[in-house]
């Protein structure tokens, strides 16, 4: 059955470009899935290079409306649009990313006999944990799904609780991946001791807690430097905090970089700092850093701990004092950094997107044809 082809309808209700971890993953995942014809539903504007991963990309025409008094009407309208597309494309299976959010509800309500594989990312789970309405929406999406894919066991446990353990047998852990073969690790082992050149990359919001890395520099004994790459709601606050701490010469802010540009930059740094303080779906950028041979310092969350598997140094989430201690120790211990660089490459090799694609393809085949 492994070689059997699939016609999959999927989508993410965002601009069709590599603007977030979920969108980057979707591009890599469907390009890596064997024997799969993929129709992707998204929003404009469309990045042609990103869209090339799909056989067909169809922009959704229903105007997007967030949660609020018009949300139910919006989902109803989106459901009618999706139902028409299902009739046209006649998919073997549907992949509903971000279960509980609007597009997944539209899939759930219009799929009919077409099997659905729900694919969780993290923001969908955070929404369900904050809001009763979003939790009920996730339960609806789970009930309509033949399988629920999660990237870590820790995230599976949270979804199991949110859905009142009614769908435990539908949960399937498939770790996310990256195109490991495209990574270019730094040449030679780390050298020298003293202040570190650090990098942090990702969405700048409260949960990502980039402020922890900035404040850690103020507590550290060594004058480490930090480059922050990304955009988000916390950008202005972070810049002001760096100025307030007198760190404006040691903290540099750069805008979001496409993956190829970010990957070219990673080898310029001594270590990667991962600072999420709450729920983390997977943390692809952490694996990307490891694939380039960077030692990583990470907030000690269950899901992140599982991903790193000892190939990094943990600190207490949201605690800049704890992070400062770790950074100073790493800066003084070249042997540790060399060992971490080697361990990083080995760990990253476990997360190849080709393996993710094969596992999702096989799961989809099972729920479609068995």
Tell me what you see in this structure.
The chain folds into two domains: 190 residues, Rossmann fold (3-Layer(aba) Sandwich); 169 residues, Glycogen Phosphorylase B (Rossmann fold, 3-Layer(aba) Sandwich), CATH 3.40.50. With 370 residues, it is an alpha/beta fold. It is globular. The chain is built from 15 helices and 13 strands. The model has no long low-confidence stretch (mean pLDDT 94).
Secondary-structure map:
Layout: E1 6-16, H1 21-32, E2 36-46, H2 48-51, E3 56-59, H3 71-89, E4 93-97, H4 102-110, E5 116-119, H5 123-130, H6 132-143, E6 147-150, H7 153-162, E7 171-173, E8 197-201, H8 210-219, E9 225-229, H9 235-244, E10 251-254, H10 259-266, E11 271-274, H11 284-291, E12 296-299, H12 302-308, E13 313-315, H13 320-332, H14 334-348, H15 353-369
Parallel strand pairs: 1-2, 1-4, 2-3, 4-5, 5-6, 6-7, 8-9, 8-11, 9-10, 11-12, 12-13
Helix pairs in contact: 1-15, 3-4, 4-6, 5-6, 8-13, 11-14
Number of domains: 2
Characterize the biggest β-sheet.
7 strands, parallel
Gyration radius, to the nearest Å?
A: 21 Å
Task: Give the overall shape, derived from the CA principal axes.
Answer: globular
Kindly state the percentage of residues in helix.
40-55%
The ordered H/E elements are EHEHEHEHEHHEHEEHEHEHEHEHEHHH
Counted by DSSP, the helix tally is 15
Count every beta strand, where a strand is a DSSP E run of 2 or more residues.
Answer: 13
What structural class should be given to the helix and strand makeup? alpha/beta
- Average pLDDT reading: 94
What fraction of residues sit in β-strands?
A: 15-25%
Unreliable runs, pLDDT <50, ≥5 residues?
A: none
């Amino acid at each position: 059955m492994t070689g059997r082809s699939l016609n999959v309808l999927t989508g993410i209700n965002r601009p069709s470009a590599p603007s977030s971890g979920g969108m980057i993953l979707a591009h890599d995942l469907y390009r890596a899935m064997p024997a799969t014809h993929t129709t992707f539903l998204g929003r404009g504007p469309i990045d042609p290079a990103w869209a090339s991963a799909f056989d067909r990309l169809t922009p959704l025409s229903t105007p997007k409306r967030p949660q609020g008094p018009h949300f139910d009407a919006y989902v109803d309208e989106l459901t009618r649009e999706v139902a028409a597309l299902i009739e046209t494309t006649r998919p073997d299976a549907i992949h509903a990313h971000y279960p509980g959010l609007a597009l997944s509800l539209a899939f759930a309500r219009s799929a009919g006999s077409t099997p659905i594989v729900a694919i969780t990312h993290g923001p969908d789970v955070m929404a369900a944990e904050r809001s009763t309405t979003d939790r009920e929406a996730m339960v609806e999406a789970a009930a309509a799904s033949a399988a629920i894919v999660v990237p870590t066991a820790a995230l599976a446990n949270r979804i199991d609780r949110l859905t009142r353990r009614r769908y435990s047998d539908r949960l399937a852990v498939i770790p996310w991946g990256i195109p490991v073969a495209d990574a270019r690790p730094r040449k030679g082992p780390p050298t020298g001791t003293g202040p570190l050149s650090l990098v942090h990359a990702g969405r700048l919001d409260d949960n990502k807690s980039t402020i922890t890395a900035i404040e850690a520099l103020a507590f550290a004994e060594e004058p480490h430097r930090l480059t922050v790459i990304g955009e988000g709601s916390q950008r202005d606050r972070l810049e002001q905090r760096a100025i307030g701490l007198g760190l404006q010469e040691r903290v540099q802010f750069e805008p979001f970089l496409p993956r190829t540009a970010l990957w070219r930059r990673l080898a310029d740094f001594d270590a990667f700092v991962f600072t999420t303080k709450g729920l983390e779906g997977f943390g692809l950028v952490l694996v990307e850093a490891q694939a380039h041979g960077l030692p990583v310092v990470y907030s000690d969350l269950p899901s992140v701990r599982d991903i790193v598997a000892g190939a990094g140094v943990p600190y207490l989430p949201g605690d800049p004092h704890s992070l400062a201690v770790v950074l100073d120790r790493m800066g003084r211990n070249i042997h540790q950094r060399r060992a971490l660089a080697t361990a990083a490459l080995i760990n990253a090799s476990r997360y190849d997107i080709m393996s993710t694609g094969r596992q999702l393809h096989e799961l989809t085949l099972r729920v479609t044809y068995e």
